[in-house]
Amino acid sequence: MKTAKLTGIRRFEIREVPDPKIVRDDDVLVRVATVGVCGSDVHYFTDGRIGAQVVEFPFTVGHEAAGTVERVGRAVRRVKPGDRVAIDPTDFCGECDQCRAGRPNTCRRLKFLGCPGQLKGALSELLVLPEHCCFPIAPSMTFEQATLSEPLGIAVYSVERTFPGPGATVGILGQGPVGLSVFHVLRASGVGNVYATDKIPERLAIAGELKPAWSGRPDSPDAVGEILSREPLGLDVVYECSGDPAAWLQGARLCRPGGRLVIVGIPEVDEIALPVHELRRNEVTLYNIRRQAGCTQKALDLIDSKKVNVDSLVTHRFPLERTQEAFALAAGYKNGVVKAMIEVAP
Ligand SMILES: [Zn+2]
Ligand SMILES: [Zn+2]
To answer: Global pTM?
Structure first.
């Protein structure tokens, strides 16, 4: 089969490798249709690492995927050959303290698709995964929509954990695929006024379709002042979805006393200084979001029921052979890219 391998910093090569085989009784062999390019994949492309997770080249990245089941192990009940599936990239053990506490996203033996040292990624024609990672999708759902259930699942999880309820005022810093997904889920959850920032005009335009109370650049002239002039009491929740350290500071200043600052974006840096006295005096609660737990089916249901329409997130499409181009585009934030989709076998 063909696979796109990251062979160095900012370098992909398309290689022919042996087809993966079903090994365990609960394994499923999936013919991959689409793979979304995620900000985390882009970090591996540009820096070769995220924090302590370092790529050993060559390596196959990619964890947002959908496809068709080709073959299944003997014990598989959940799916059968021919089923179209969305893929949840988290393989957890189900036995450790974290799994038993309902936190498979922080499983002690967690293996994540396309994560260095864990599992090979999805940018290949074929993929073998345990059955619990495969979610059958409705005939009306496209592979692209199924692929978007991964970032949407993170948004569902973020909102589920932190959104106080209908009418709450919210800031969303960063209108990339995850920020926009959070916006979509909040809209479906009855959010009140939403304040949205991003540096890229095309992203603000897409956020505009979701009717923010105000949207603009984070850095000019004074986004925090603009927002607080409209919400003098501060915001109930701020979702930091940009990974920009400056946005953490803005988020801390935007929260009302007793508010929540939710960190969803992945920073490129290893440390960020925070205004501790503002956070402390205002009793702002800091939430960290680690991917998601148990939200893949919920995300698929939101798409399927048309409560959320994520189609506008996909701005660019590339065949597997042009993976390099897709990543260069996403890394450079060029041409208004939000989600670049690799069509492995559309
Ligand atoms: Zn992702
Ligand atoms: Zn576990």
So the answer is: 0.96
